[in-house]
Amino acid sequence: MRDYWYKRAVFYELYIRGFQDSNGDGMGDIPGMTSRLEYLKRLGIDCIWLLPMYPSPGHDDGYDIMDFKSINPEFGTLTDFQLFLDKAHMLGIRVIADLVLNHTSNTHPWFLEAKKGPSSPYHDYFVWSDNPDKYANVPIIFQKSETSNWAWCHECGKYYWHRFFTHQPDLNYDNPKVREEMLGIVRFWLDKGLDGFRMDAVPYLYEREGTLCEGLPETHEFLKTIRRLIDESYPDAVLIAEANQWPEDLRQYFGDGDELHMAFNFPLMPRLFMAIRQEHHGPVVDIIRRTPELPENCQWAMFLRNHDELTLAMCTDEERDYMFKEYAKDPQMKLYSGIRRRLYPLLEKDIGKVQLLNAVLFTIPGSPVIYYGDEIGMGDNIYMGDRDGVRTPMHWDDNRNAGFSSCNPSKLYAPVITDPDFSYTSANVQVEELIPSSILNWMKRLIHLRRLFPSFSNGKLRFIFAENKKILSYFVEYDGERMLCVFNMASSSQPLNIDLSEFAGCRPVEVFGGAEFPPIGELPYQLALGPYGFYLFELCG
Ligand code: GLC
Ligand code: CA
To answer: Helix, strand, coil: what percent of the chain each, to 5?
Structure first.
């Protein structure tokens, strides 16, 4: 069995603007983040995922790109980036970055040229139409901001296609020049030493009449072309799909292990929040049973939160209503078909629930992705626009601006969180590193444990169905190692009887503390779990 680094890795999603300001202009930058690499080393993560670092007018926080082969001057220079990459590698940390294939900013020179009309060599880089009725069935993603996927271009006298904001024209993948440009961009960054990409919005590359224009065969074909380039020239790099789709559709982005290495598990994420609220293992069990097996060289990317709203796109209407009712009591918390809140506020600052969900996330086979700030229990600001309230400055200490910047507080790109419940004066790296029982130190232990037991990254999962539906329990097994994971999804203490007779004679050892539990016999094994309690056991002997 081959060891694939990305299957073992813990990822850390990092927002450059919000991480560390080095020059006092109120905005995080690359030298700032370089100076914080030792912190990430101490945390124990293996790979950083950088949100877009490219020049951009910033109408979609950098997902609107003006130049794919350069660095946003607000963040630094290409030299700063190279220094960052080299230092990360020296510390044994890999780095991947967002790659936005689907669209550019409307200020990208390609689009400025394309607008001039069909005589421009760049006109065909984008998708144009004389009328806005083409592809009529295609859903609008940013419902609250957009009314059509077509926008009128006055200069060109035609409509252009955009799946996201109006200012993000979609590239035309039917044009071989576009495909070549994008392959060139992939090479450009991997030649600099980048370790791969989080591939933004991959389902939407091609459009065809009469379809939803999502995940078309042509799109998969181009993704496979990128993969061939990776396998030939950069065999250690990883590609992670952002495709907000149902399990059957998601499965296609892996191909036969010849397309993308990883994909975010969008369907599982909201169901973890449902299960803990309903105090029932059902939502998690159902979706995992519906999730197809992956080829051996592939892996799920597992997450609880990210830089976007907690998306409920992969929910039924009923499930969505339930999630809104339980997790977005204030209408300010809703955005698009999701909820713009961070992990801690969502879980009502209950450390038991936070530990429980993270423990599930880190033990179901897949590679976890931590969203910056969630490891210290940062709060959010639901009164900021769009998704900005989950992108506020990282809390480093209890000094001015939470140690993020030396600037005048009014100059910060976004205010630090000062709500009494989540204030940076207590929820910060410096304070939490000193408190043994802090969530930060607990996350460090969890990351360490995942590394000790390869079952958590490579294992096969088998559910155990006990009578008590409030308990989620499963085995994960790999290469002779057997782990038993038991979670109480309820706010009250629960008894559990499970049939473990196939392991009669084994001794369960709890992995956080090392305590040995009574040996397993032929009779049902009995356990008691406190509110939101859980056990991770290695079955020894
Ligand atoms: C992805 C990003 C999101 C962005 C969108 C358009 O979904 O996660 O932040 O707005 O793509 O690029
Ligand atoms: Ca700065």
So the answer is: 35, 20, 50
